[in-house]
Design goal:
The complex is a heterohexamer, with three copies of chain A (377 residues) and three copies of chain B (82 residues). With 377 residues, chain A is mostly helical. Chain A has 19 helices and no strands. Chain A has a domain at 94-254 and 277-376. Chain B has one domain (2-80). Chain B contains three helices and no strands. Classes of the chains: A mainly alpha (377), B mainly alpha (82). Chains in contact: A-B, A-C, A-D, A-E, B-D, B-E, B-F, C-D, C-E, C-F, D-F, E-F. Bound molecules: sodium ion (3 copies). One sodium ion binds at residues 147-149, 327-328, 361-362, 364-365 of chain C. Chains A, C, E: It is found in: Cell membrane. Chains A, C, E: Its EC number is 7.2.4.2.
Chain lengths: 377, 82, 377, 82, 377, 82
């Protein structure tokens, strides 16, 4: 009978706290979004499963010796190994051709970062409400959700506000998945049908050498002027150079496949382990979710408005829709631009033109993360 | 909170200024690269040739198994037409 | 001349102890079994090579700073990273379709675990002989060999009896390779030719959604009732969900290939490093080998008998041979069932029917490991 | 040792009981899932359609290189038959 | 304004030291050599990029918590994990067939190691010049450059002279890339046109079993007589056995592809992190570069002379050119032999014959590293 | 430095001697292996057969899609020749 008592005590049931049950439900919702709704499944499926595992009483996944504890410590806390390796992989999958062909697109990528800095201001304003007490560090980590870039958000949150990391990562990936729902109304509200119909000149061909020199130039400029941004920008450019150099195809291939896949799984599980009830079930999480939506919306609007300004002062036509791609969320935002463009003008294929601001937005938010790290870190 | 708000406003201004400054700098960088590549195109062409030769099977040449298939097809056809 | 003395002293020859020579012979035998006899070569080849390396005097593979020391510490001792990642990979390679189509097969997977618990009793009985002094922890770690599942055995041994880990892992993989020799006589002794001829109804088609929900249901039930089993069952279900969800095929692909292959090499070398003469050349190792054979045999017999009972009380015919597949050893045990079935009835293909108890056996032994961990850990 | 044996016997009983209890529970779980899927089949069909579309080249459509091979074969044959 | 000052202080510009700028130029030169000149790009591209990253003020790549610090510590300093895993991968890509067919080629691989030991003597001689103060450990680590084998050089340098590791690795890979320029003049100076025209008998077919037993025999002999060489030789033979055994093709495939590629990137970045200005911008680095060239040249000459001696005392013809392949630098040195041979005799294909001394040179330098480790380590 | 030079000279001598001794030993090892394999060749042949069977598609057999291409080509050709 004593063994049976031990056994009963060793089930979870007498140990569950209500918060853990709610968090397991959150994990299941993330799995549902990932599998059925296909919301960024590469990350949200592992995060959701990690959330399930970490909230089991007695299983010890997130205690010393546990698998998730180890992954979080080795890959995020001690060194931001996982987000940087993912960024390297994303760099190796990115083609900067469209941006090199039309470098002014960088201005759109810059404008869209207004979403980040405006949200930072908004997060401090939220402190006026009861229950919110964000430090400037917290506010910066939350605001980076507006960068629409998962590894950047995880990297910055791990440095500035580790206790908010779980909520920030979930918000970042969820809103990236919601780009097709969030962006179109804003894009349509800020443009006239005529503007949306504007066709753009075909991009010039970019030579192999330009593509090779580009990542080297980016890292050198970053090193000189924004060293705090070099971990992110450096690994991104390294991955891109592996791809574009053409001399290490076998390395580039591994970086784009087995390495990024392995790290994605580990990163997702590790992030999931931060979805404990104490950390997640707070009013601050609601604030983070709200601020994330605000950040995305402001970034989209700022990109579109910047594109309208550019169009006015440019000799060549610029369709203002492509400004929305400046938030990054590669390549989904560019596809949304293309879709909204086609609705206005069935002969207007904006995809390639939107790739320029799209990859510019990746650089822009990595730069913004570097600035925040330098100023409030 | 007033102090924090001032800080946040300052970050908003400085942050956007630096982001724009940096990316404008990058526009200049890209234009310099493009000018450089246009100024010294010879090496580029040569390099393009070597780096553009992929290891993957060329699509314009018929692969050996396809050639075998073709000759088998033609051969089979002749016999049936006799 | 002094340099020559230093040189002579730096050869292994004046430092060899007899035990190390014997262990190197053991390593060579494992290589022979792996390469020539094709006994579970994926694990036994690295284990055999690790055994060679760890027994070299002066080479320091298993001392601080040595490669095998590092692999064992990082991947098994501090966190059971390697066995859990392998389990994830196995999960991603497992198709639960046959089990979902015929869930009663779980009873066969349950029955076969009798091999584990009976052997636990037997190990304590062995303490009556001179030279044996197994604790309840040791006995549990040995008994899990009867689960016929390598990563489960390594996981449990690393928790309950690390000093026996080498012998237990070698025994587990050796007996898994011997399944085609150990099982058929037992299967034939317990069944009549008529029983072995029984044909079974074709399995129903299982929908994609059932396959997706299944691993989630398994992990939730495990979390509620057997949290101690969640590391194993959780990573197994996670791997299976990566595969079945259909939305993260690139992750599933990496988990099934480069990740599991890399970890298999590391795990094998790390396990081999535990084959030192002090740990392995003991009378206890003989006991472990004997108990392992007993465990396999009892498990096979229990599975077959359970299948006979089921056949009696079931409206549909059940061929008792498929009970033998309940010990797991996927997919070898199922193939053995198919082969013995074909001998009795050349038109009787039992392979798909045996896959049900086969994968049920994997869950069964992971559950048994959880119970042992909860009760004696 | 007697005490250890009692412990081991207890583990044998409790262990097998829990293994059976747990796997029987799982049988129930599978049946509930099957019932649920049978009760709401519509979404399933839709989902099956989307998830069953593989990225791999379809085997029923002829691939472009094969089409090229065919036309080359036909073309070559015509010339030889003239 | 204060924020602007913080911002200016947070750029690299007020913090750069001249040495860091020079080292960044060194990094760019390495990238140029790798990408444009295709000098061993698999290693020199990551090393060059690592050199860029590590010399950025304030970025902290090589400080506690930094990515490169972590990679160096985990993969080289605490355990020579990265060089050993690369050696395992190289082993899995090596075919010993040509060597087994003509085992006397091992004598050429032995002779070429004279480059190592003569350079060791030369390094101590250099101490006569002002500014040089090499210990015997330093001298040994430098001399191993003559082994023309990157992982071996990194392995030994990490043990004997970690502060010289960056310069030694860069020298080793640079000279390996320069083999087609360094070797031919030496080869031609030491041979007559008639000797270069010598054709060699076709090699016998080597059976699968010989190829399987060979790595096992090598590791056993190494274990007995040179345990200090077992880390390198052991992992090399393990990789080779994975390949030749034919029973673990999926492991061999991963070792030759995703695993070695991943580790190559990590190793390159970690080595690059040792290219700091304090460590690299010393007169000793110039000495290392000079000694490396000497080592390669002496090794080449010794191999050719040994081949001439063998040719005199052998019943079968031996083309002395193949002795040059004994320095290893697989497979470049063998290709150079083939090319120089074809110049003298357009019908003389020496590639297969040169593969024997080529792979013998890998074993030879690993053995030499073991001797140095045993005697001065 | 004189002492270091003596040490280095000694290392040079001992090192080369050991390298040669070890690799000569290995020559002997290879010859023993070759003799062993020659003495017991039967098992070798059997093993060669099993390990030499590759999993890769045989190049002598026409693959199904090629066969389909051929028949399509022949079929198409017949129609055009009518
Ligand atoms: Na962005
Ligand atoms: Na089992
Ligand atoms: Na060498």
């Amino acid at each position: 009978m004593e063994k049976l008592m031990v056994l009963w005590e060793s089930t979870s049931i007498p140990h569950f706290e209500p918060g853990q049950l709610i968090m397991m439900a959150v994990g299941l919702i993330l799995l549902y979004l990932a599998i059925v709704k296909k919301f960024e499944p590469l990350l949200l499926l592992p995060i959701g499963f990690g959330a399930l595992l970490t909230n089991i009483p007695l299983a010890g996944f997130s205690e010393v010796g546990g698998l998730l504890y180890f992954l979080y410590k080795a890959g995020i806390a001690e060194t931001p190994l996982f987000p940087l390796l993912i960024f390297m992989g994303v760099g190796a999958m990115t083609d900067f051709g469209a941006l090199i062909a039309n470098p002014r697109m960088l201005l759109l990528g810059a404008a869209a970062q207004f979403g980040i800095f405006a949200t930072l201001f908004g997060a401090i304003l939220l402190n006026g409400l009861p229950g919110f007490n964000f430090t400037l560090q917290d506010a910066s980590a939350i605001a980076i959700i507006g960068g629409a870039d998962g590894p950047t958000a995880i990297f910055l949150a791990s440095k500035l506000a580790p206790e908010l990391l779980g909520a920030i990562a979930v918000a970042a990936y969820s809103y990236m998945a919601l780009v097709p729902i969030i962006q179109p109304p804003i894009m349509k509200a800020l443009t006239t049908p005529e503007e949306r119909k504007i066709e753009m000149k075909q991009l010039r061909v970019v030579s192999k050498r330009e593509k090779i020199i580009f990542p080297i130039a980016v890292i050198i400029l970053t090193m000189l002027f924004l060293p705090a941004a070099t971990p992110l920008v450096g690994m991104f450019c390294f991955g891109n150079l592996l791809k574009e150099s053409g001399v290490v195809d076998r390395l580039s291939d591994t970086v784009q496949n087995s390495l990024i896949n392995t790290v994605t799984i580990f990163l997702g599980l590790a992030v999931g382990s931060k979805l404990s009830s104490e950390a997640f079930l707070t009013v601050e999480t609601l604030g983070i979710l709200a601020l994330g939506a605000v950040a995305f919306s402001i970034g989209t609007a700022a990109g579109v408005i910047m594109a309208k300004v550019l169009n006015r002062f440019s000799t060549e036509n610029i369709n203002p829709l492509i400004g929305a791609a400046g938030v990054s969320a590669v390549p989904m935002a560019a596809r949304v631009v293309n879709k909204v463009g086609l609705e206005a003008n069935p002969h207007n294929f904006l995809l390639m033109h939107a790739m320029g601001p799209n990859v510019a937005g990746v650089l822009g938010s990595a730069v913004a993360a570097g600035i925040l790290l330098a100023l409030v870190g | 909170m007033a102090e924090q708000l001032t800080e946040a406003a300052l970050l908003l201004g400085v942050g956007m200024a630096v982001v724009f400054a940096f990316l404008v700098l990058l526009i200049g960088g890209i234009q310099v690269i493009a000018a450089y590549v246009r100024a010294f195109p010879g090496e580029s062409a040569e390099q393009n040739n070597t780096t553009n030769t992929p290891a993957s099977p060329s699509t314009t040449e018929l692969r050996p198994d396809l050639v075998a298939a073709i000759s088998a097809a033609v051969h089979a056809h002749r016999h049936t037409n006799k």
